[in-house]
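Changelog note: in this version the structure field was regenerated for every chain. One regenerated record is shown below for reference.
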Amino acid sequence: MSFRRALALAACGLAGGSVLFSAVAVGKQPARGGDAEPRSGGSAAAVAPATAAPPGLLLLPPAAAAAASCPPAPGWIERPAGTGGYWDSNWDRREPLALINLKKKNEETGEEELASRLNHCKAKATRHIFLIRHSQYNLDGRADKDRTLTPLGREQAELTGHRLASLGLKFDQIIYSSMTRATETTEIISKHLPGVKKISTDLLREGAPIEPDPPVSHWKPEAVQYYEDGARIEAAFRNFIHRADAKQEEDSYEIFVCHANVIRYIVCRALQFPPEGWLRMSLNNGSITHLVIRPNGRVALRTLGDTGFMPPDKITRS
């Protein structure tokens, strides 16, 4: 049975091909005196494949293989045939061709006008996005206002602020979650970055972005929480994570101070990884995650949850 199961799983790996044959172990087949002929009145699917099966194996036609125990491919990886990959270049809906109305093209000078309009909509700068997880906070607080930073958490925020300042970058803004622990972390970090404007938002508040796969036993919020928080966190992603505006001339450096669940979900979405995998990553308090979004929409992850600038005895993950 184990051998039969292993062969069935091997066949699952071929599911992306145009024709799928499932190999299963069978007993010795009775001799038929040469190539088998289809039975009278049989369908085309019953015709034996041109390639003979190895001894002891039976090659099933596509219809039978589809009924094998292979799980169906998740909807998020389904792409039209011939796309050459899974990357959606218009993931942020800011691809130049998606921003213009081709019906308004002038018929006489259409090509020149189209090229000019495309160039006008094309991003020119790179966005550097620094996602900072808040520092350690008081877990015993019942209400958000009581969940203030611990003394160690304040030390962590100081270290994170010093690290960001040491990069020598001209930061454009700090956007932070309106929750107490993120607000206090921002106040400490901003002391190391004088003059950088700060913007508070409810979109970046902590929550349950999407039901994780595989699930975990120690954290199971109600389904309604995914429904409510997920829409908000997805809205945060769409609002803040995208290529630069066409009017932006220089590269930008932006800081977002928020929460582990939000950051992990954003990373998965930005890299076009399955968002259900967000809980497979861990982020330390005060850690720095650096995303880069190029003018052509390509996204790179420079660092994920970096706390190498902290002494080992200052690192926590609560």
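Spot check on this record: Residues 154 and 161 are 11 Å apart (CA to CA). Helices lie at 2-12, 62-66, 110-121, 151-166, 180-191, 223-240, 260-270.
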